[in-house]
Here is the input.
Amino acid sequence: MKKTVSFSRDSANVFFHITTRCNLTCRHCYINRDQHGDETLPLETVETWLNLFARRSVKANIVFLGGEPTVHPELAHMIKKARKLGYDSITVDTNGFLFNDILSKVTPQEVDYFSFSLDGATAATNDMIRGAGSYVACTNGIRQAVTRGFSVSVIFTVSQTNIHEIGSMGPLLTSLGVKRFFIQVIGIRGRSAANRTENLQVARNDWLGTVPTAAEEIARQGITVTFPKVFLKAGDRFECAGRVADNYFVFPNGRVYRCPLCEDFAMHSLMVDVNRLTEREPINENDLFQLDIPEGCVMNKLIQPDNLSYRPDGTPKYRIACCLLKEEIAGYTLKRT
Ligand code: SF4
Ligand code: SF4
Here is the structure.
């Protein structure tokens, strides 16, 4: 059954970019070194920052990401430290190359999920976006992780270039032993914002006509599917996660954002400064979160307005949801009676 995943302040979600280094150069990469730094954080710094965020809430979930987090030779120590600090769930987002023999340095008890990025059901489509050889490396990485007993999820970023393959992902995910599937929508930030000649954004009709049906179909194969709502229906409530949730997007240069769509700008509301988490003076992203506009998400209107549409009187035809608002369909299989 489909449900909307409500925002909550009962637990914190920490998205910790421990490095911005990566072996790939994906076309839609959101990493922006001018804004996020080009450091790889030393182990001691990561441990100190993990401690800071663990104390922000009674329950906290952590996602290690980059860049490619497995290029960090001490990722395994960071995972073990996060476990000791009591993080409720630990996920590693990876492009699948799994450097530094990470799978043999941690156990399935220490990592809740390895989450692999795959942007096509075929090598042709995935590699056009993520680079030659990345499909084979990623699917091999998934097989290795599953064989070693790790829980594995896949993240697929939908854009104009690969939306036609989302419906073919089910059989691939099943054959690979994937338990969860996360669909994301392309954000016009990082490299996608720098290269605006390529229109990657997905039109409303294309999204609504493809993604929810594909998600339902994949869930029917026993895989739990999460996908962003993106386009609100009349009567749906709009909420900005910056106001009602507890998310931290942490970068190696110490910037901490509450909203991923703000990450191309120096609008972060928090900063890790000499190992203390401090609030920044206005004006920052917090001031934008307070604005109520008829289009819904303020940042969407500012950085990716091509998904909006207006009536002749200038009012928007629909509102855009917070980019963090998700729907989830638990995996199930139909039983013969
Ligand atoms: S999207 Fe991820 S894997 Fe691709 S270049 Fe960026 S950090 Fe690397
Ligand atoms: S994406 Fe929009 S609605 Fe969501 S946190 Fe950012 S500004 Fe708020």
